[in-house]
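wait is this the right file?? whatever heres the structure
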C-alpha cells in the first residue's frame, strides 16, 4: 500500500481531469502519504511538541486527541491561539521557524514527517500545492481569530460554540475535549465570564450543558439573537480578561 500511495502522488494528471477533481485527488494522496510514511508519536497532556523558534522542518497531523498552539503573555496568562483535532494539520509556517509553541492538551497521537522526506517520496509540485493550501487555510483561521477577539464576551462564546459544532459535532452533541480553562485561554475571558454566559444560554434554553465536555445546541437563531443582545454585552464586557490592577485598602 505505501508504494501505491507514492505511485498515486507521482503520476501526472491528465488535462481531461478537472481542476476540482485534481485538487481532491492530490489532497487524498497527500493524506494517505502522511498516514503511511509519517512517524506516529505519542504525547502526554501538556507535553511540548515543538517550541517557539524551533526549525519548522516537519509537517504534523493529529491522529487522536487534542493539540494546541499557545503563547505566554506578559501578565502570566496563557493565550491559546488554535485547537487542532483528529485529522487536522498544524505547525505550518511561512518562515523557517515556528512562531508559536505547540503542546498536547489531552493524550494525543501525532503523525510527523519531514518536509524534505515528503518531497523526495512524491511529486514536489503536488506537495507544494498541498502545503500552500493548508497554510492558506491556517492563515484564514488566524484572521478569523483576530476578528473574534475584537468582539464582546457573549459573541466570543457564541462563535466558539458554532465553530466547535462544525468541527466536533457527533449526533446532536457538540464535543468539547478541552477543559473550561482551555476555553477561557482561547477566548481571552475569565472563567467566571464563560461560566456565566453558558449558564445564561442554558437558562434561556438556547443550549443544554451535558457535563463539562458536551453541549447540545437547541437553536441557531436563538444563539445568534443572544450573541446580538448588546444589553447583556454591557454586563459581560466588564469581565473580559485584562491585566489585573493592584488595589490597596485605606
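ok assuming it is, sequence goes like this
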Amino acid at each position: 500500500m505505501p508504494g501505491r500511495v507514492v505511485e498515486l502522488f507521482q503520476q501526472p494528471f491528465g488535462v481531461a481531469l478537472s481542476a476540482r477533481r485534481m485538487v481532491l485527488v492530490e489532497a487524498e494522496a497527500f493524506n494517505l502519504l502522511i498516514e503511511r510514511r509519517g512517524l506516529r508519536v505519542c504525547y502526554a497532556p501538556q507535553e511540548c511538541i515543538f517550541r517557539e523558534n524551533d526549525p519548522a522542518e516537519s509537517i504534523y497531523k493529529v491522529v487522536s486527541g487534542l493539540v494546541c498552539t499557545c503563547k505566554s503573555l506578559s501578565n502570566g496568562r496563557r493565550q491559546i491561539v488554535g485547537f487542532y483535532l483528529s485529522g487536522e494539520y498544524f505547525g505550518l509556517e511561512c518562515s523557517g521557524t515556528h512562531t508559536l509553541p505547540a503542546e498536547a492538551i489531552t493524550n494525543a497521537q501525532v503523525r510527523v514527517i519531514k518536509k524534505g522526506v515528503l518531497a523526495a517520496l512524491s511529486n514536489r509540485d503536488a506537495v507544494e500545492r498541498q502545503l500552500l493550501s493548508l497554510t492558506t487555510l491556517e492563515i484564514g483561521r488566524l484572521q478569523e481569530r483576530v476578528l473574534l477577539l475584537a468582539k464582546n464576551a457573549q459573541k466570543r462564546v457564541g462563535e466558539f460554540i458554532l465553530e466547535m459544532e462544525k468541527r466536533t459535532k457527533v449526533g446532536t452533541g457538540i464535543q468539547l475535549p478541552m477543559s473550561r480553562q482551555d476555553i477561557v485561554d482561547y477566548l481571552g475571558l475569565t472563567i467566571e465570564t464563560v461560566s456565566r454566559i453558558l449558564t445564561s444560554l442554558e437558562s434561556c434554553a438556547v443550549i443544554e450543558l451535558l457535563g463539562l465536555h458536551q453541549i447540545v445546541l437547541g437553536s441557531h437563531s436563538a444563539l445568534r439573537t443572544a450573541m446580538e443582545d448588546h444589553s447583556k454585552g454591557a454586563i459581560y464586557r466588564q469581565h473580559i480578561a485584562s491585566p489585573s490592577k493592584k488595589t490597596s485598602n485605606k
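Confidence is low (pLDDT under 50) at residues 1-16, 230-250. so i think its the right one actually
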